[in-house]
Design goal:
about 5% helix; mainly beta
Length: about 100
Amino acid sequence: MTFKKISSNSINKDVKDIHKKIIHIVKPGKSGKEITCLGGTIWITQEGDGIDRILTCGDIYQSRIPGMIIIEGLEHSKIKISSLQKVEIIGNFQNKRQPQLACS
């Protein structure tokens, strides 16, 4: 099994290929992370969470606790990693822009 660390510099590039049976490690940082599966299937768990999750295309995991995030591709997959930020809601509107998914 191979391990890869996803650095904060590579997170700025948004979309990552996740290859089958490769372990990726993400440090959550102060604001936490949002991981969106854009295609394929991934296994995800987080230090301090105690729950394993399977994400398929369109699923989103939001990390709100400190602790390393571990991701493994169950097949060749694509993910998007974003930083969670506290926001102030100033009104209601609908954003019609959706992430581009590689599934139907």
